Amino acid sequence: MDHSKPITRRAKASEDVESHASYIADGSVDGALRFLERAEQTIKGLAIFPASGAPFPTDVPDLAGMRTKLIRDFPNHVVFYVERE
Question: Which keywords are on file for this protein (predicted)?
């Protein structure tokens, strides 16, 4: 039985992933493909284990509940997300 939550991706988030992959591809196409794979794995993992990301500390009310998760093998890249019921 699948216990994962549905994933809603904002257009800007998808554009950001593509932009980062394009930048990485300038140095390594294999690296860019690995980045895309790891980003997708991270996002799908959050659908199953949404609490695995760290709370994002903020005083901005619109960002309340925001969490972050590092993309494996890419420590300078983070997924920002909010868990919804």
Answer: Toxin-antitoxin system
CB hemisphere CA count around 77 (13 angstroms): 22
The ranges assigned to domains in the chain are 11-82
DSSP string, 14-49: HHHHHHHHHHHHTT-HHHHHHHHHHHHHHHHHHHH-
Neighbours of 17 (CB within 10 A): 19
pLDDT at 85 over 90: no
Q: Could you report the per-residue pLDDT of 27-59, keeping only the tens digit for each?
A: 999 999 999 999 999 999 999 999 999 999 999
Res 1: pLDDT: 60
Task: Specify the pLDDT at position 3.
Answer: 76
Which residue in 83, 81, 85 sits closest to 12, CA to CA? 81
